[in-house]
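Q: what sequence does this backbone want?
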Protein backbone atom coordinates (compact mmCIF):
# COMPACT_ATOMS: atom_id res chain seq x y z
CA UNK A 1 0.00 0.00 0.00
CA UNK A 2 1.36 3.40 -1.00
CA UNK A 3 1.86 5.82 1.89
CA UNK A 4 1.02 9.45 1.04
CA UNK A 5 3.00 12.00 3.04
CA UNK A 6 1.66 15.39 4.09
CA UNK A 7 3.61 18.58 3.28
CA UNK A 8 4.62 18.70 6.97
CA UNK A 9 5.91 15.14 6.85
CA UNK A 10 7.89 15.87 3.70
CA UNK A 11 9.57 18.77 5.51
CA UNK A 12 10.43 16.42 8.39
CA UNK A 13 11.74 13.90 5.85
CA UNK A 14 14.35 16.41 4.66
CA UNK A 15 16.38 15.91 7.85
CA UNK A 16 16.97 12.24 7.02
CA UNK A 17 17.62 13.15 3.41
CA UNK A 18 20.17 15.78 4.32
CA UNK A 19 22.07 13.45 6.63
CA UNK A 20 22.01 10.69 4.03
CA UNK A 21 23.51 12.99 1.39
CA UNK A 22 26.09 14.37 3.81
CA UNK A 23 27.29 10.90 4.71
CA UNK A 24 27.44 9.85 1.05
CA UNK A 25 29.52 12.95 0.37
CA UNK A 26 31.78 12.01 3.31
CA UNK A 27 32.19 8.51 1.88
CA UNK A 28 33.08 9.93 -1.53
CA UNK A 29 35.87 12.03 -0.05
CA UNK A 30 37.53 8.81 1.10
CA UNK A 31 37.52 7.19 -2.32
CA UNK A 32 41.11 6.96 -3.58
CA UNK A 33 43.63 4.25 -4.42
CA UNK A 34 44.82 2.38 -1.32
CA UNK A 35 41.62 2.73 0.73
CA UNK A 36 39.61 -0.36 1.64
CA UNK A 37 35.84 -0.51 1.37
CA UNK A 38 35.71 -1.59 5.03
CA UNK A 39 37.45 1.65 6.06
CA UNK A 40 34.80 3.67 4.22
CA UNK A 41 32.04 1.67 5.90
CA UNK A 42 33.46 2.27 9.37
CA UNK A 43 33.68 6.03 8.83
CA UNK A 44 30.14 6.12 7.46
CA UNK A 45 28.68 4.34 10.46
CA UNK A 46 30.51 6.63 12.89
CA UNK A 47 29.42 9.72 10.95
CA UNK A 48 25.75 8.73 10.96
CA UNK A 49 25.70 7.91 14.67
CA UNK A 50 27.67 11.05 15.58
CA UNK A 51 24.92 13.10 13.90
CA UNK A 52 22.10 11.37 15.77
CA UNK A 53 21.07 8.88 13.10
CA UNK A 54 21.04 5.13 12.65
CA UNK A 55 22.57 3.45 9.57
CA UNK A 56 19.68 2.57 7.28
CA UNK A 57 21.24 -0.58 5.83
CA UNK A 58 23.00 -2.25 8.76
CA UNK A 59 20.90 -5.25 9.75
CA UNK A 60 18.31 -4.59 7.04
CA UNK A 61 17.22 -8.08 5.91
CA UNK A 62 20.44 -9.25 7.58
CA UNK A 63 22.83 -7.02 5.60
CA UNK A 64 26.04 -6.76 7.67
CA UNK A 65 27.25 -3.23 6.91
CA UNK A 66 26.31 0.44 6.80
CA UNK A 67 27.03 0.89 3.10
CA UNK A 68 26.77 -1.17 -0.04
CA UNK A 69 30.17 -0.89 -1.72
CA UNK A 70 30.00 -2.25 -5.28
CA UNK A 71 33.22 -2.13 -7.30
CA UNK A 72 33.48 -2.35 -11.09
CA UNK A 73 31.36 -5.33 -12.27
CA UNK A 74 29.44 -5.37 -8.97
CA UNK A 75 26.05 -3.77 -9.62
CA UNK A 76 24.59 -3.49 -6.11
CA UNK A 77 24.79 -4.91 -2.59
CA UNK A 78 28.56 -5.23 -2.41
CA UNK A 79 29.67 -6.03 1.14
CA UNK A 80 32.51 -3.85 2.50
CA UNK A 81 35.71 -5.84 3.04
CA UNK A 82 39.49 -5.56 3.06
CA UNK A 83 39.43 -5.08 -0.71
CA UNK A 84 41.76 -2.23 -1.60
CA UNK A 85 40.61 0.27 -4.21
CA UNK A 86 43.08 0.67 -7.07
CA UNK A 87 43.65 3.25 -9.76
CA UNK A 88 41.06 2.87 -12.51
CA UNK A 89 38.29 1.33 -10.40
CA UNK A 90 34.80 2.73 -10.06
CA UNK A 91 32.82 2.20 -6.86
CA UNK A 92 29.10 2.57 -6.31
CA UNK A 93 28.34 3.52 -2.71
CA UNK A 94 24.74 3.18 -1.56
CA UNK A 95 23.89 4.39 1.90
CA UNK A 96 21.24 6.06 3.99
CA UNK A 97 20.31 7.13 7.47
CA UNK A 98 17.26 6.93 9.67
CA UNK A 99 16.59 9.96 11.87
CA UNK A 100 13.41 11.48 13.24
CA UNK A 101 11.49 8.39 12.15
CA UNK A 102 12.27 8.87 8.43
CA UNK A 103 14.69 7.09 6.12
CA UNK A 104 16.93 8.68 3.51
CA UNK A 105 18.37 6.58 0.69
CA UNK A 106 20.92 7.59 -1.96
CA UNK A 107 23.79 6.25 -4.05
CA UNK A 108 26.63 7.50 -6.22
CA UNK A 109 29.35 5.98 -8.39
CA UNK A 110 32.79 7.48 -7.79
CA UNK A 111 35.92 7.30 -9.92
CA UNK A 112 39.08 5.96 -8.25
CA UNK A 113 42.09 7.83 -9.59
CA UNK A 114 42.50 7.73 -13.37
CA UNK A 115 39.48 6.04 -14.91
CA UNK A 116 39.09 5.13 -18.58
CA UNK A 117 37.07 7.40 -20.85
CA UNK A 118 34.67 4.52 -21.55
CA UNK A 119 33.93 3.93 -17.88
CA UNK A 120 33.59 7.66 -17.17
CA UNK A 121 31.00 7.92 -19.95
CA UNK A 122 28.99 5.08 -18.37
CA UNK A 123 28.90 6.97 -15.08
CA UNK A 124 27.97 10.28 -16.66
CA UNK A 125 25.13 8.81 -18.69
CA UNK A 126 23.80 6.88 -15.68
CA UNK A 127 23.73 10.11 -13.67
CA UNK A 128 21.87 11.75 -16.55
CA UNK A 129 19.43 8.83 -16.45
CA UNK A 130 18.72 9.65 -12.80
CA UNK A 131 18.05 13.28 -13.69
CA UNK A 132 15.79 12.24 -16.57
CA UNK A 133 13.82 9.93 -14.28
CA UNK A 134 13.41 12.63 -11.64
CA UNK A 135 12.03 15.06 -14.25
CA UNK A 136 9.16 12.62 -14.82
CA UNK A 137 8.25 12.42 -11.10
CA UNK A 138 5.28 14.78 -11.28
CA UNK A 139 1.60 14.36 -10.37
CA UNK A 140 -0.41 12.82 -13.19
CA UNK A 141 2.51 10.91 -14.68
CA UNK A 142 2.97 7.19 -14.16
CA UNK A 143 5.75 4.96 -12.86
CA UNK A 144 6.25 3.84 -16.44
CA UNK A 145 7.13 7.39 -17.47
CA UNK A 146 10.09 7.32 -15.08
CA UNK A 147 11.24 3.93 -16.32
CA UNK A 148 10.84 4.93 -19.96
CA UNK A 149 12.95 8.06 -19.46
CA UNK A 150 15.75 6.07 -17.83
CA UNK A 151 15.65 3.14 -20.26
CA UNK A 152 15.45 5.16 -23.46
CA UNK A 153 18.42 7.34 -22.51
CA UNK A 154 20.58 4.40 -21.40
CA UNK A 155 19.79 2.27 -24.43
CA UNK A 156 20.37 5.19 -26.78
CA UNK A 157 24.00 5.01 -25.64
CA UNK A 158 24.13 1.24 -26.04
CA UNK A 159 24.05 0.42 -22.33
CA UNK A 160 22.15 -2.28 -20.46
CA UNK A 161 19.34 -1.56 -17.98
CA UNK A 162 19.13 -3.90 -15.00
CA UNK A 163 15.67 -5.43 -14.63
CA UNK A 164 15.75 -7.40 -11.38
CA UNK A 165 16.60 -4.50 -9.04
CA UNK A 166 14.49 -1.35 -8.94
CA UNK A 167 13.73 1.84 -7.08
CA UNK A 168 11.01 1.94 -4.45
CA UNK A 169 8.88 3.98 -2.12
CA UNK A 170 10.59 5.37 0.98
CA UNK A 171 9.18 6.53 4.30
CA UNK A 172 9.34 5.29 7.86
CA UNK A 173 11.06 2.19 6.46
CA UNK A 174 13.60 1.79 3.68
CA UNK A 175 11.35 -0.03 1.25
CA UNK A 176 7.71 0.87 0.68
CA UNK A 177 5.35 0.57 -2.26
CA UNK A 178 5.51 1.24 -5.14
CA UNK A 179 8.40 -0.39 -6.99
CA UNK A 180 10.06 2.01 -9.44
CA UNK A 181 11.65 0.08 -12.34
CA UNK A 182 14.29 1.63 -14.58
CA UNK A 183 12.46 0.43 -17.66
CA UNK A 184 8.87 0.76 -18.80
CA UNK A 185 6.33 2.32 -21.11
CA UNK A 186 4.85 5.78 -20.98
CA UNK A 187 1.50 6.01 -19.25
CA UNK A 188 1.79 2.57 -17.63
CA UNK A 189 1.95 1.59 -13.99
CA UNK A 190 0.95 3.40 -10.83
CA UNK A 191 -0.27 6.96 -11.31
CA UNK A 192 1.92 9.44 -9.45
CA UNK A 193 0.33 11.85 -7.00
CA UNK A 194 1.48 14.57 -4.65
CA UNK A 195 2.73 13.20 -1.35
CA UNK A 196 4.41 10.10 -2.75
CA UNK A 197 8.09 9.71 -1.87
CA UNK A 198 10.19 7.40 -4.03
CA UNK A 199 13.81 6.40 -4.51
CA UNK A 200 14.77 6.61 -8.17
CA UNK A 201 17.94 4.61 -8.80
CA UNK A 202 19.18 3.71 -12.27
CA UNK A 203 21.51 0.69 -12.38
CA UNK A 204 23.12 0.72 -15.82
CA UNK A 205 25.71 -1.63 -17.31
CA UNK A 206 28.40 -1.17 -19.94
CA UNK A 207 27.53 -4.55 -21.47
CA UNK A 208 24.77 -7.02 -20.72
CA UNK A 209 22.19 -6.30 -18.05
CA UNK A 210 22.16 -10.03 -17.22
CA UNK A 211 23.50 -10.67 -13.75
CA UNK A 212 23.89 -13.14 -10.92
CA UNK A 213 24.44 -13.09 -7.16
CA UNK A 214 27.73 -14.23 -5.65
CA UNK A 215 28.01 -17.01 -3.08
CA UNK A 216 27.85 -14.47 -0.22
CA UNK A 217 24.14 -14.15 -1.01
CA UNK A 218 24.31 -10.39 -1.51
CA UNK A 219 26.68 -9.05 -4.13
CA UNK A 220 25.11 -8.79 -7.60
CA UNK A 221 27.55 -8.81 -10.54
CA UNK A 222 27.26 -8.56 -14.31
CA UNK A 223 27.45 -11.85 -16.18
CA UNK A 224 30.03 -10.52 -18.64
CA UNK A 225 32.29 -8.94 -16.02
CA UNK A 226 31.88 -5.45 -17.45
CA UNK A 227 31.26 -2.53 -15.09
CA UNK A 228 27.99 -1.07 -13.82
CA UNK A 229 27.07 2.33 -12.42
CA UNK A 230 24.40 3.21 -9.85
CA UNK A 231 22.97 6.62 -8.90
CA UNK A 232 20.05 7.32 -6.58
CA UNK A 233 18.11 10.10 -4.89
CA UNK A 234 15.03 10.08 -2.69
CA UNK A 235 12.40 12.30 -4.32
CA UNK A 236 9.10 13.75 -3.08
CA UNK A 237 6.36 14.25 -5.65
CA UNK A 238 4.65 17.58 -5.01
CA UNK A 239 2.15 19.79 -6.81
CA UNK A 240 5.06 22.10 -7.64
CA UNK A 241 7.19 19.32 -9.13
CA UNK A 242 9.79 16.84 -7.87
CA UNK A 243 11.71 17.76 -4.72
CA UNK A 244 14.96 15.91 -4.08
CA UNK A 245 15.03 15.13 -0.36
CA UNK A 246 18.54 13.69 -0.33
CA UNK A 247 20.44 16.93 -0.56
CA UNK A 248 22.70 18.68 1.91
CA UNK A 249 23.96 22.27 1.97
CA UNK A 250 25.90 21.56 -1.24
CA UNK A 251 22.88 20.24 -3.12
CA UNK A 252 21.84 16.81 -4.38
CA UNK A 253 24.74 16.13 -6.78
CA UNK A 254 28.23 14.92 -5.90
CA UNK A 255 31.48 15.00 -7.89
CA UNK A 256 32.27 11.90 -9.96
CA UNK A 257 35.87 11.88 -8.82
CA UNK A 258 36.51 10.44 -5.37
CA UNK A 259 38.68 12.19 -2.84
CA UNK A 260 37.15 15.64 -3.38
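A:
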Amino acid sequence: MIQIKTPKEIEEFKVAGSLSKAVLRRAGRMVRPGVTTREIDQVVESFIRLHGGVPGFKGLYGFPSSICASVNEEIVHGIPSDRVLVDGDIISIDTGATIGGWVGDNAWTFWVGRVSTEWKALCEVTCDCLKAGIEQAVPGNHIGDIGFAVQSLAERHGYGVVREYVGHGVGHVMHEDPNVPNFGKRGRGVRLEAGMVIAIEPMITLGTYRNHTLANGWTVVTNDGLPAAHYENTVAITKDGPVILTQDSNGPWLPFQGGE
